[in-house]
Automatic annotation (TrEMBL):
UniProt keyword annotations, A-Z: GTP-binding, Hydrolase, Membrane, Mitochondrion, Mitochondrion inner membrane, Nucleotide-binding, Protein biosynthesis
Domain Tr-type G: 1-163
Source species taxonomy: Eukaryota, Metazoa, Ecdysozoa, Arthropoda, Crustacea
Any one Gene Ontology BP term: translation
HAMAP family, alphabetized: LepA
Pfam family, one: EFG_C
Positions of GTP binding: 56-60, 110-113
Topology of the protein relative to the lipid bilayer: Peripheral membrane protein
EC class name: hydrolase
Catalyzed chemical reaction(s): GTP + H2O = GDP + phosphate + H(+)
The protein's role, per its UniProt record: Promotes mitochondrial protein synthesis. May act as a fidelity factor of the translation reaction, by catalyzing a one-codon backward translocation of tRNAs on improperly translocated ribosomes. Binds to mitochondrial ribosomes in a GTP-dependent manner.
Subcellular location: Mitochondrion inner membrane
UniProt protein name: Translation factor GUF1 homolog, mitochondrial
Length: 583
């Protein structure tokens, strides 16, 4: 028996509870799940009370790390598929993520009450893709409450109890798989009790930092925080222990009783950032506040990597690594909404692997092979023996009507087709090998536009492969502007350079002399445009007279502009950097 009152149906059915688990403002505005949320319920089944811990995870590929961490605390997964939209690309990715973890997978169709729902067709897709029998696929309508009880009872019947893998008689071992920061309580740690029983007042020690804490509060999420006197073996719950430093709540850490040391649990593989961007405060006075905001958000989102960066034009900042562009967009939006931080985000870049040659340059970087995420750190061409860029395997599910347009889009992004097969009578699943740099900014938007919003896209990392990557420099009157440098494939460098030059021409303020804007790779100029000078009317004081007088004034003006161009310093305003560097 579980010593908790029946909490099934604890949430009232009214208009205020339309988005119960979507707590973040960005989730409610965008209609997506960004952060995995936990809810524990007690259900009475055949006279026996069962405590179920349910985790609502995101579906988008950019938040896969949230899903993988949640699976570590679960024995089963519900594969939820929209009966109206059918199987999507991220459905395939998350299925295999659960399959690799060897947990029970229960297929469920949702939104069967919609007018255009096609349960029979979607069940056929599930059979073709994952070999699920149509009879084992449950049908529900969360809106009307149809079939929800059947899903809960299927979990009880099919998913094994965590007690089979845990040991209640062993010393306490806790797996920390999520955390967030509370200004009054400090770090709130969401844990799985792997062994033993945790009680209030216990003194626990972190295997990562070696620091000890007293458990101040203990509880489960229903989904509201509900205090309990103790957590039993196999349960998921939270504890607070006055942990004030964000770095002390390391996701994947093992906690044990201070009096009984034990072997740490296998943690999580560190997240592999796919997209990098510079983050700078609008005003350098806000640097300490922004630093604290980033630390608190990184506690809540352990997949973000952080390194310090500085720029002559933008000041002190950070280079942050994200799992994708949506991840980057959501993180910066949370900085603004939850912490009131106004930031500048530079154009997103991907990591490149460079093999160096020459003893001096290898000693400078410390090793022969380096990962470059910032264009300003790119070595000189004669010091590079090979460049590699990251590739991904993209999975696109689309109606066959848009096949031609999507193939054209993939080929224009240097894609190589791997496979194509029918999902059902009208939908196709296509796999393309694509360079990450080609899809990171606007590929998803272009795909949605070409397919009228029906195509879905997901990708998985394939690692680095040799590619001809060059550093594109931007010059103003022959002087390189480091902050505007970028990395690109040699076939895309000319087009990219031309676009940046045209944008600079529109945003740079005019001077009294002509400004030449150039895009160059090494010593080769790939694109150029000029900003015409502001002309002063030196002939205004001439009211007639000999033409030689006018020519003399014009000649003197031309000579002055020539000297000014040679010695004049072009100051690029901060606003121009913001317009050029921002996404």
């Amino acid at each position: 028996m579980v010593p908790y009152k029946n909490t099934f149906g604890a949430i009232k059915k009214d208009t205020k509870n339309k988005q119960v688990l979507d707590k973040l403002q960005v989730e409610q505005e965008r209609g997506i799940t960004v952060k995995a949320q936990t809810a524990s319920i007690v259900y009475n089944y055949h006279g026996q009370k069962y405590l179920l811990n349910l985790v609502d995870t995101p579906g988008h590929v950019d938040f896969t790390y949230e899903v993988s961490r949640s699976l570590a605390a679960c024995q089963g997964a519900i594969l939820l598929v929209d009966a109206n939209e059918g199987v999507q690309a991220q459905t395939v990715a998350n299925f295999y993520l659960a399959f690799v973890n060897e947990i029970v997978i229960i297929p469920v169709l949702n939104k069967i009450d919609l007018k255009n729902a096609n349960p029979a067709g979607v069940k056929e897709q599930l059979k073709n893709l994952f070999d699920f029998s149509p009879d084992e696929v449950l049908s529900v309508s969360a809106k009307l409450g149809i079939g929800v009880t059947e899903v809960i009872e299927a979990i009880i019947r099919l998913v094994p109890s965590p007690e089979k893998k845990c040991n209640k008689d062993s010393p306490v071992r806790l797996l920390l798989f999520d955390s967030w920061f509370d200004r009054y309580k400090g770090a709130v740690c969401l844990i799985l009790v792997v062994d033993g029983t945790l009680k209030k007042g216990d003194h626990i020690t972190s295997s990562h930092s070696g620091k000890s804490y007293e458990v101040r509060d203990l509880g489960i999420l229903t989904p509201l925080e509900t205090s309990v006197p103790q957590l039993y073996t196999g349960q998921v719950g939270y504890f607070t222990a006055n942990i004030r430093a964000a770095k002390e709540a390391q996701v994947g850490d093992t906690f044990h009783l201070k009096s009984a040391k034990c072997e740490p649990l296998q943690g999580f593989k560190p997240a592999k950032p796919m997209v990098f961007g510079g983050v700078y405060p609008i005003d350098q006075k806000e640097h300490p506040a922004l630093k604290a905001a980033i630390e608190h958000l990184c506690l809540n989102d352990a997949s973000v990597s952080v390194s310090i960066e500085s720029s002559a034009s933008l000041g002190q900042g950070w280079r942050l690594g994200f799992l994708g562009l949506l991840h980057m967009d959501v993180f910066t939006q949370r900085l603004e909404q939850e912490h009131g931080a106004q930031v500048i985000i530079t154009t997103p870049t991907v990591p490149y692997k460079v093999k160096l040659r020459g003893g001096r340059v290898i000693r400078e970087f410390g090793r022969e092979e380096v990962i470059i995420t910032n264009p300003s750190l790119w070595p000189e061409k004669n010091n590079i023996s090979e460049t590699n860029e990251p590739f991904v395997m993209g999975t696109i599910i689309t109606p066959d009507t848009y096949l031609g347009a999507i193939i054209g889009l993939c080929h224009s992004r240097r894609g190589v087709q791997y496979s194509m097969r029918n999902l059902d009578n009208t939908r196709l699943i296509i796999q393309y090998k694509l360079p990450l740099n080609e899809i990171v900014v606007d590929f998803y938007d272009a795909l949605k536009s070409l397919s009228s919003g029906y195509a879905t896209f997901d990708y998985e990392d394939l690692g680095f492969e040799p590619s001809d990557i060059v550093k594109l420099n931007i010059l103003l009157n022959g002087q390189v502007v480091p902050e505007l440098s970028t990395l690109a494939h040699i076939t895309q460098a000319r087009t990219l350079g031309k676009n940046i030059c045209e944008k600079l021409k529109e945003t740079l303020p005019k001077q009294l002399f002509q400004i030449a804007i150039q895009a160059a790779v090494g010593g080769d100029i790939l694109a150029r445009t000029n900003i015409k000078p502001v002309r002063k009317d030196v002939l205004a004081k001439c009211y007639g007279g000999d033409i030689s007088r006018k020519m003399k004034l014009l000649k003197r003006q031309a000579e002055g502009k020539k000297r000014m161009k040679m010695y004049g310093n072009i100051e690029v305003p901060r606003e121009t950097f913001i317009n050029i560097l921002k996404r």
